[in-house]
Amino acid sequence: MAEMRKIILASNSPRRRDLFGLFGWPFEVLPAEIDESQLPGEPPAQFVKRLACEKTQKVAEQNAGLVIGADTIVVDGSEILGKPGDEDQATAMLRQLRGRTHQVYTGIAIIDLQMGRAFNEVCETDVTMRHYSDDEIKAYIATGDPMDKAGAYAIQHVGFHPVEVLKGCYASVMGLPICLLAQGLQEFGLQPPEEIQDRCQAELNYACPNLPDLGKV
Question: Choosing from 18, 71, 88, 148, which is the catalytic residue?
C-alpha cells in the first residue's frame, strides 16, 4: 500500500507537488541537482527522458524508497526553449511561439532500487498558442511568471491564458502527466485512487480526450 512505503518526489516544482498531491499519498520532496545540458544530436524526447532518469537515479542512490522524477521541455521545430534568462529573452520566446503550434515533452521516471525496478516514459503534447498582442506579452512578463517557465509561459495562467488549442495532456504541459504516472506506479504495486482521473480533470478544468484504462494490475 502507498501509505506503507516511502515515496519521494525528486522535484522542487510547486506545480509538480500540487499535481502529485492529487493521489492523496504522503510524500517527501528531495530535488536533485544534475547537469541538464543536451548531448550533441540528442533528440528532444530522448533528452527529456534521460534527465528524468538521472534525477531519480541520483536521489534513489542516497535515499531508500520509491523515487519519482520528471522533466519538461518546450520544443519549437528542432529548437528547445528553456527558461528565459531575462525579460528580453522571455519576450522573444513568446513572440516566437505566438499563433503557432509547438510541442511540450515531459519525461517521467520511477525507480525503486530495493525492488530492482524502474519505469520511464515520455508524454508529448501539441500546443497551439493564440495571437496575443505585444502589450499582453509586456503585461504578462511584468508579473514575473514567465521567468521560471520553459518557453516563458504557464499554460494555467488565468490572466494571460496563452494557449488556444491543446491536443494531449494538460497536466503534462504543467510538468506531470498524471495518467502516465498512474500507469507507471501500477508496475510498482501501487494502485492509484479510482477517481484520480476525475481529480485531475476537475483540478485543471480540462476534459482529457485520451484517458487510459487504469484498471487494477
Answer: 71
